[in-house]
Structures are given as structure tokens and as C-alpha cells.
Write a structure and sequence with these properties.
The protein is of the alpha/beta class. It is built from 13 helices and 5 strands. Helix 7 (141-153) links the parallel strand 3 and strand 4. Helix 9 runs parallel beside helix 11, helix 10 packs across helix 11 (260-268) and helix 11 (260-268) crosses helix 12.
């Protein structure tokens, strides 16, 4: 039998091809219900990972995700959502997938088995960065190549996998192993393993951004209002946190080029745009600190 748990046969779905459609849905849902508990078991390791990432961010480091196939796509997805959500540079969190951007849409033959490709892709890493490798099985040669180069760069390394026998767990400073058990369809790690991975990635970026002051309470105060939905959200955030009407929030946001934190400080502190920006600079962009100094 394979040592890769996601390749095991799931006895609960053995005859899924004989079931009515509604029963297929129920079987998949039953398996999905197990995911959150499996993620919870890794809470302490996820918290440690968040603290590592936040610390390196404050040192000017970047977060890099490396993966092949579904794992790589999930890393790219999580990275791509950080700039609009938290107003950070697109270089701060980056997703690298084996085989390059073409692999986002189509399988690139042999990419995950290419050790040297992993070494080459990871040459982007530096000492202050965090390298997070993602693999349900935890054994691709591409990922092992990435970790070899990460070791040379002396950067922090974290692994996310769904297999406690994963080779990558032996090569990193911190491992997050979410064992979700055999998939509904044997080997289809885009399912439970993919969902578990997405949950962990959400926690890593959201948690680390919270730790470096990219939120106030549970508001995304550094969002980039690039469309009507986000502009409406910005207005609601400013109105609530500054205790003003939406019309006042809108007027102030327009005045300060839709900078949410600046608008809040202008209204809460009854100060000019320039003074608000300077106060934020003095407090390293952290709104809670800036408000505390008013």
C-alpha cells in the first residue's frame, strides 16, 4: 500500500459511482465535515508559523509559497489576494508554481519531479524571507529542490502537508501536517487536502497581517478600493470607526484619495490630511498606535 495517505482508498465512498446524485453530494459533504477538526489539531503549529511570518515581515522580508499542481495554484491564489485585501505590495507575498504561470491552467508534464527546477525557482529567496512549501503528499522532488536552495539562502522554512510521512517534514524548521484521511476519490488531493490547505493559507496570511497592524479590530483598514464594492466597504468602515454619517465618510475619503486610515484619523483627531499621514508614519502605519497617540 502507498505511504501517501491521500492515495489510500476511502472505504466510505467505495461504491460512490453507484449512488444517486444527492447521495454523492452527501458523501462528499460528510468527508468535508472532517476537515476543520483536522486543521484545529495543528493550531499551535499554525500559530507558530504566523509569528515567524509576521516577524520576518517586520524585518522587511517576504513570504513565498512554493507548490506543484493544486498546491501551487492555492499558493498563487492566496498570494494574489493579499494586495487588494491588505494594501500590500504584490511582491510581499508571492506564489510560485512548478512549471510557471502556464501550470496555473494546464498540467506541465514532469514539473513536480524536477529537483533542479525547484532549486532554480527558489533562487529568489533571501535570508529575511519565509519559504512555505505546500504539498499534500509532501514528496515532490521539485519541493525538495526548493528546500535545498532555501537552506543555502538561510531563510525560514515551513511545510504544509497532509501526510505525516512526508519527506519535506524532515527538511523544514516547522511543519504543519493536516491529515484529512483518504480522499473521496482516491488520490484526488484537490478535494479534502486542497480545502484544508486553503484554510491554513488563509490563517497564515490573515494572521500575519493582523500581527503587523494591517487590520483594526476586524476591519481591513488597508484595503485598496479599486471597485464599487470595495469603495462602499471603505465608506462603511470609516463611518463606523469615526462615528460619522456615510456622506461625511465619503467626502473625507475622496479628499484623501481613498486612504481609509488617513480618513479615520482626520475625522477622529479633527486634523488635516498631512497631519494624519505624518502621524501614521511615526507609528509605522499602525492605526491603533496612531489613534492611541491622539
Amino acid at each position: 500500500m502507498s505511504e501517501i495517505i491521500t492515495e489510500y482508498r476511502n472505504e466510505n465512498t467505495k461504491n460512490i459511482d453507484l449512488l444517486p446524485t444527492i447521495e454523492i453530494v452527501k458523501k462528499i459533504n460528510e468527508e468535508d465535515k472532517l476537515i476543520a477538526d483536522s486543521v484545529e489539531e495543528e493550531s499551535e503549529n499554525i500559530a507558530r508559523a504566523i509569528d515567524i511570518i509576521a516577524k520576518q515581515f517586520l524585518l522587511g522580508g517576504k513570504l513565498y509559497y512554493f507548490g506543484a499542481g493544486t498546491s501551487g495554484r492555492l499558493g498563487v491564489l492566496d498570494a494574489s489576494e493579499c494586495p487588494p485585501t491588505f494594501g500590500v505590495s504584490p511582491f510581499m507575498v508571492q506564489g510560485i508554481i512548478a512549471g510557471g504561470d502556464k501550470a496555473l491552467r494546464t498540467a506541465v508534464e514532469g514539473a513536480e519531479d524536477n529537483f533542479e527546477l525547484g532549486v532554480e525557482d527558489a533562487k529568489i529567496l533571501s535570508r529575511d524571507d519565509v519559504c512555505v512549501v505546500i504539498s499534500a503528499s509532501g514528496n515532490p522532488k521539485y519541493i525538495l529542490g526548493v528546500l535545498k536552495q532555501a537552506e543555502s539562502a538561510c531563510c525560514k522554512t515551513i511545510a504544509i502537508t497532509c501526510n505525516h510521512k512526508a519527506a519535506i517534514l524532515e527538511e523544514v524548521s516547522l511543519g504543519i501536517c493536516v491529515e484529512v484521511g483518504p480522499e473521496v476519490i482516491a488520490g484526488s488531493s484537490r478535494m479534502k487536502a486542497g480545502t484544508a490547505t486553503k484554510m491554513v493559507l488563509n490563517m497564515l496570511t490573515t494572521g500575519s497581517m493582523i500581527k503587523i497592524g494591517k487590520t483594526y479590530e476586524n476591519f481591513m483598514i488597508d484595503l485598496m478600493p479599486t471597485n464599487e464594492k470595495l469603495k462602499d466597504r471603505a465608506i462603511r468602515i470609516v463611518a463606523e470607526l469615526a462615528g460619522v454619517q456615510a456622506s461625511v465618510a465619503l467626502q473625507t475619503l475622496i479628499e484623501c484619495d481613498w486612504k481609509v486610515k488617513v480618513a479615520i484619523l482626520m475625522l477622529r483627531g479633527k486634523m488635516t490630511q498631512e497631519t494624519s499621514k505624518e502621524l501614521l508614519r511615526k507609528n509605522h502605519g499602525v492605526l491603533r498606535r496612531a489613534l492611541g497617540s491622539i
